[in-house]
Amino acid sequence: MIARNYADFASRLTLDAVPERVRERACHLMLDSIGTGIAALGETWEQRAFAAAQDLGKGRSAVLGHGRSLAPREAALVNGLLMHGLDYDDTHSRGIIHATVSSLPAALAAADHAAADHAGASGADLLRAYIVAMEVSTRVATVAAGGFHRHGFHPTSLCGAFGATVGAGLLMGLDAQQIGMAQGIVLSMTGGSLEFLEDGAWTKRLHPGWAASSALTAATMAKHGFVGPKAAYEGRFGLYSLYLRDGAPAGLADACTGLGENWEIESVSVKPLPACHMTHASGDAAAAICAEHGLAAGDIARVTVLVPEAVIPIVCEPAAPKKVPATSYDAQFSIPYVVATGLLRGRFTLDELDGAALADPEVLRLAQKVEYAADPDTDYPVHFTGEVIVETTGGRRITKREAVNRGAADRPLSNAEIRAKYHDNAARCVTAAQADAIADAVLDIANHPAARLSDLLAAAAPVEILEGTPA
């Protein structure tokens, strides 16, 4: 059984058995998502989600920027939403999954819960659980080979729940049999619809937090002897048969291949742009054309963007809201908007997602000229390729291709670049001293109690946010 294999792997793994480079990269991935969560503090959708979570369950678990005011499951829900809400968090390309934003919130909440029950989890325990969760979630998603997206399901929620369950189970002291059972239980709690793509709804932001919250529920049920199905993945109505609708995928036999030897954390891509990863190569190509040619809007007659055929329904269609994005989320999933912005501004940052930027008439007029076609030379999902072809009013044809998207596993952002990104994000909301303290705690997590990091995250908020948070 795949679930039992994952459970045995998790139960036997020691942190010393994880190569130092993997531990170091894991800490930087954690830091990256914490930074994106801090940058999201104060957004309308996060404030409303936090208010809803307060109605659902008060407690003493740490919530990024909101003190210690929620029960563990609600804390995991909000932390996942914060870390994923700006769509600036990491992506495992082959699995097409944002794995940190369910793995880390579940681990943080489970560690807090362990602290309430016992002497408390160590930072080393937290790091081990996070690494295990990442290894499981990314493999679960990779087996589907993009199939979940084709059927309208979001792997970040669907697959993230399984890895988060295994990680949370470790921190709760579950044995291998219980961790195996917990995966069967969480099978009945998984979900995540891509319907948000149609109208820019907020629900995608909720997905990883729901996965983390469900993980805590499943692990706790298993801890108390609740029975779930054993064949969570390969069963007749297991994950793959149920959600792919066409039977077990060809890669099912590889679900556990390389556990403890090949580390999927090293294949996780860190985002250099705050947009859907599927837009990055095209956005960078557009920015490169801007830097080299300095075209004005009036110089451009037509733009064609080549993208992998599989991503067209996500970042190119439906055409109308992609060319005139009504919300920041529309813009983050829009090839026309990202490419038009890159061609005219030479960049794509969080500032390009504020109200003034979304209403920029020059960018919107150029977005109307952006068309798309399937890229015949892509190796998607290994890379999120992109090629921008500009035809000028003067008759020139300018082409720029990004065959390997920046930040991909074989074109990674360095740890120093991740730290720089973190500090840029954190500076939007907290003091430099707060940002430094959090970074130090994350990057040295194995040598401190997990509660130290939780306390710092809970306190990482501007005064105006904390004033609205109950003690």
Core attributes:
52% helix; disordered C terminus; 471 residues; 2 domains; 2-methylcitrate dehydratase PrpD; two-stranded antiparallel sheet; alpha+beta; 60s Ribosomal Protein L30, Chain: A; four-stranded mixed sheet
How would you portray this structure in words?
The protein is an alpha+beta fold and 471 residues long. It has two domains: 2-269 and 411-466, 2-methylcitrate dehydratase PrpD; 277-402, 60s Ribosomal Protein L30, Chain: A. 52% of the residues lie in helices and 8% in strands. The strands form three sheets. A four-stranded mixed beta sheet has the order 6-5-7-8, with helices on one face. Helix 2 (20-39) packs parallel to helix 21, helix 2 (20-39) runs antiparallel to helix 22 and helix 5 packs antiparallel against helix 6 (123-143). The chain is globular. Mean pLDDT is 93; it is low at 465-471. This is 2-methylcitrate dehydratase. GO terms for molecular function: lyase activity. It comes from Novosphingobium guangzhouense. Residues 6-246 form the MmgE/PrpD N-terminal domain. Belongs to the PrpD family.
